[in-house]
User: What shape does this take?
Amino acid sequence: MIMPLLRRLGQTVFVLFGISALVFAVFFATPGADPTARIAGRNAAPQTMEKVRKEYGFDRPLPVQYAIMMKKLFITRDLASYANRGELVVPEIMRAAPVTLSLVSGAAVIWVVLSIGMGVVAAACKGSWIDRTLMMAGLVGISIPVFWLGQVVNLITQNRYHDTWLFSWVPGLGYVPFTQSPCGWFLALVIPWCVLAVMFVGIYSRILRADLVAIMGEDFIRTARAKGLSPTRILLRHGLRTALITFVSLFGMDFAQLVGGGALLTEVVFGLPGVGRLTYQALNSLDLPLIMATVMYSAVFVVLANALVDAAYLFLDPRVRDAH
Amino acid sequence: MTKPSNTHRPSAGPWASALRSLLRNRAALASVAVLAFIVVASLCAPFYARHVAHTDPFVSNVAGTIMLNGQETDIMQPNDNPLHLGLSPIGPTGHTAYLLGADSQGRDIMARLLYGGRNSLLISFSAAVLCLVMAGTVGIAAGFFGGVTDMVLSRLMDIMWAVPVYLFAISLSIVTITSGLRIGPFVIEADNLLIPIVIIALVYVPYAARPVRGRVIALRQAEFVTAARCLGVPRWRIVLRDILPNVSTTLVVMGPLLMAMALLAESALSFLSIGVQAPAASWGTIILDGEGLIYTRPMVAIAPGLAIVAVVLALNILGDGLRDALDVRDASRRE
Assistant: This one.
């Protein structure tokens, strides 16, 4: 029990190091322009350039630069944005994080409930028109670019049909903190939740259906059937429970990726001031320190979340526990 | 399985029988037709712009006029909404000129849509092919040689896998867009289409390399590989003659799915203005152009979005059809 955990911990530390080195290399060691110019922003004064070069150690070897950057990001947390008049980057990310978390959690609830429903119904009606319709709907969901869907939904709910009874409740674009007004928070987020969930409903319902169909052909299902259990009970208690193992591990990964910035496009389209929109604004002002910080923090978050999910598996799933 | 009665005739190879079962799949055939139509239409973009619409979709035409029903009409029209000042571009005309209306710079949307299709399809297709080549190489090397090679490559893939795809692509794009790329004597300008192609191919390599590696590890223990090895066949020959043909079905099935993901990624990058650079068009940049006009001239953003949905959906259906036809199970699609 202890050894697998330790091994997993060692892997996590290694991947964390690897990721930080990779992100560092992307931003500061790609062939091309001087990294000083990238940090200092467009048309920086020579004094600023000199200051940046000193501060980030760009006149010193790469490992030293890497160490300085990690210290600024995670220990002193005083990485400052040059494009944005010395605004500290890390606190800015921390302020934006709850918005992203609200967006992703709500969407996750919708996509888990809907995709389990769709996947189970499709698997139960395998081969019928219901199955085909649901799976085609899932495929359409996967194929829609989320930012475009957001725009079209905005067009309908904010403009064309806003004055009808159907959408008159939709508030203007933007975010309302939960602490300020729970009801306003819900209303502001419910449409972004649905838009963000569409693609994942497609992916998850299709995966769940495929897994369920495969599992329903297995021996233990035949045993359950031979015992005379009802088809519903077999599908839900025996089939679905087994199929959910893959589902849950995929869910952990996607959830972490979305919180780590994968929801960027949804945040941009709906004007939600989360981590993704912060990255987007940094893109427009070419604010490299901010972009690097968001990428680094989200990558670290994804790795830690995955490690947590894996550790939970060690405790929950006897097959994984005893395999080591 | 060949029946005893026709053993004298060579049975159909895996590709021929896959093609036959694909030809029976009506949804897959329909999606091939849709794809072919969109590709041909995009290839005709210069012809359409010059001889049908009579406009240049890359030059701002704010002061221009067109003839509609014998009347000369301004491209930039007074706003419909009296509360708003300024001009808005002409909406869908229903004529050959400005069929879908104009964007905020007075350029013909239909013509830009066709030109944008060229870039979007070219980028996503090339990115998918490049990604398959890289993932195939990495997956075969890691799976076949095992040991240290496998460990290094797999750990590298793990690390790349942990960075959210779009953030990874955004980081690479912003760095190359600001200053271009200089590798030794070669300079790649920031507006070169190679940049988005390479970036998109690179970020999807871990997704495609994993199934390949798994397949190769299973193949390495297959009897015919052991037999070849015992006969003293050189390793490169085993890879080329025994491993590659058996992995090729996995790669072919992943092709359309990868192209679908690459197209979505390209449009997202272009929408964030770090993909295809102005004045060149792609479906993503046209959606970006339409963002400001979404309430007044929604067609500017809706049309390229529909094109993306049509192509991605067709590619996904084709990928599913290929998977069923070639009976490949481990090439699962993942976002």
Q: What stands out?
A: Confidence is low (pLDDT under 50) at residues 330-335 of chain B. The longest strand of chain B covers residues 65-68.
